[in-house]
Amino acid sequence: MRTLLALVLLGPAAATAHIGSPNIFYEGTAGPYALQVVIRPPDVIPGRAEINVRALDANVHSVAVLPARWDTGTKGAPSADPAKRVRGDTNLFTAELWLMDPGAYSILIHADGPGGRGTTVVPINSMATARREMPRHFGAFLGTWAGVLVLAMVCLIGAAVRESVLPPGEAPTRKRTWISVGAMVIAAGVIATGLWRGKVWWNKVDGHYRNNRLYRADDLKASVTTSNSQVVLKLRRSGGRSNGRSLIPEHGKLMHAFLVRQPALDAFGHLHPLRLDDKNFETTVPPLPDGRYAVYADITDSSGFTQTLVTDVQLRGSTANEATVADEDDSWATSKPTDADPGAQKSCVLPSGFTMQQVGIGKARLQFKVVDSRGEPAVLEPYMTMQAHAVVHSHDATVFTHLHPFGTVSMTSQQLFAKRERERGKPFEVVCGLPAQPDAIVFPYEFPKPGAYRIWVQVKINGQVVTGCFDHVAS
Amino acid sequence: MVSTTRTSVAPWYFKLLVFGAACVPVGVLWDISWHTTIGRDTFWTPAHMVTYMGGLIPGLVCGWLALTTHFRGTPDQRAAAVSFWGFRAPLGAWIAIWGCFAMLLSAPFDDWWHNAYGLDVEILSPPHAVLAVGMFHVALGVLLLMLSVQNRSGNSEGQLLFIFTGGLMLLMAAVFLTEKSFPNQQRTAEFYKACALTYPLYLVTLARASKLRWPATTTAAVYMAGLMLMIWILPRFSAEPKLAPIYNPVERMAPPAFPLLLVVPAFGIDLVVRFLGRKSGWFRDTLLAVLITIVFLALFVPTQWWFSKFMLSPFADNWFFAAGDWLPYSERPGPWVMDYWGVDPTSRRFDPLTWKQLLRAACYAFLSARIGLAFGAWMSRVKR
Questions:
Q1: Is B81 found in the same domain as B196?
Q2: Model pTM score
């Protein structure tokens, strides 16, 4: 319950397109070059995003980056900034870019090499997610400095009244000295009033920042009803920053809802609620065990801005539901509770004799493979146009991320940015992701903080979606 | 035998101090142009360097002056100083040093502010207010330093430097009011109230403290000349925006908006102070402040009311007036750039200049003028 409470309380405040995992990971091709891109967005806007580009082919001579806002695109973008090659690593390039306004941006990445210029685009949410308190020692430092200045000004006003108009060498009279003391008292009052007004001003700016500039995800409410003996999950979104923009489908679905049973993380559902109207969605709940579930709903609006909305719901009686579901791509799985096996789980048995194995985590990649009973790589079918989907969820429920083999970004946003550029007359094609490897499933990702994580990996084999479940402790 | 050789009473460092004080508004105006044209900002931009020089040069010169006066000063020099925390130095030096330290304080505060709330894209923010207070006191210190030498010597040598520094202070105040002073806003109550609270203070203070014939007019002319020079010089340099989104693809450094025609009310203030304001007294000055308020508003309001109309017309769309050229890269061009703002009753920012608001502006102008008269009277007597 405590972790769930932390999730519900912290989630919206820290929400991006993912929860508690702000960095953006992407692997894809820019023309003839394979690139791995990691973007660390600023947590205040305007602020600087740090962009790291690794050339996976080792034949890129130079990299340049530029930011483009969704409504102006490259027409309203500055000239590209050259990224610096990182000393000691010939394939890694780094740059910083300013994001000035909240909303959907894209980072265009130009790579130059023997094959000419290649360009790719990485969508990014630009939004303020942090409200920083002034560190105590820094506040004490500034306060002391300001205090000395105030004291000095009061004394200077006293000196000005006492001595400044006297001819050189003449000592101030007793009366003048007393007048100067009075002036110092009045000055102290005036300065104190000025400081108080300044504090009121500061509070007003801070309040405006918290109420209007700090990102707030759309509010999401979940409820469960029974209809025709089926347990139905209803989701209602409201408020937030979407400004009434319509939603656009991601992998053909307007909403991807993930249900994770708390706190054991032993039941998982990947559902695609149907849109009833702009705010309301519903879906039949698959046969999941009773309990309290965190609900994460991924949506993308028509500007390309992606959000993960968070709420929770109590499920009861859905195990009686038939295994037929509202959407053909809905999937679910149960697994051992996280406290049943504290050690890292490296392998997972799937139906029909298949096994999913974790083959490596590191260098900004999570790698898995699926083999059949003979140990041969399984033939994977596209699952909602992807080779695989993954969900990363920390045991303490502060991190949630939905991943694909090209990374954490929204494919729809990326295609939207490319489409807008084409409409502006630029022949701009984007190939999302690297060619799939037959014997490995690679997700570009790094855990945002040390701790224990559960990872669900979903693939489609022989027309059936199967889910592998792994635990990993990030150090 | 009487010597006919005339020695200057103005120390050599006055020109250096005035140069430092001039760096402040030049640096700030350049910085605003930088933000509206290029956008991308670092600690080390040339505009920032000039602004820092404006704080450091007077601060260091006055620091040197304070140390030499206290530790190595002649009895005359020490006698012409004021005592502050056990040290003796001219009052102006102490105030300029104070201003320099206030400017330094604003730097880490502003840096934290950017990290906490994002890079600010407006002029008015609490850290910038601290910076402005520091700049004001640097210039005031320079002004008082020159004034004390003049008042002791009894002649008007260096008056032009003095009034030039006064013009720089007026320019700084005007820069701080930039966001309320575009020609588009010159039919709103807020513009007239802000101006009424600010400009009489500067013009009246200098009119009373200076020995020149037309001090307020000259001060206003310095302010206008400074701003007009920036309008004509800045666009001569090519530049391009470095931040997205770019709605207005500027190709040259953006100039500030054309200055207010402050010489008109300043001339009226000069006339009043010249003929009625040489003597001071509490009651006399209060009546004088009422008269100055009437003169200021009677000249300032119609002047800006109609001049803004010209500034928003095609006749001002040239290199001299540079109407609308202030538009930053981040704003969408459109008819709104040449329209009045705040005059549409359906607008959320509807703020017309009504008689009631004009009366409020008159109260502000009276307060400003009355303080200016008192401050100017004190300044005309400062000897240390």
A1: no
A2: 0.85
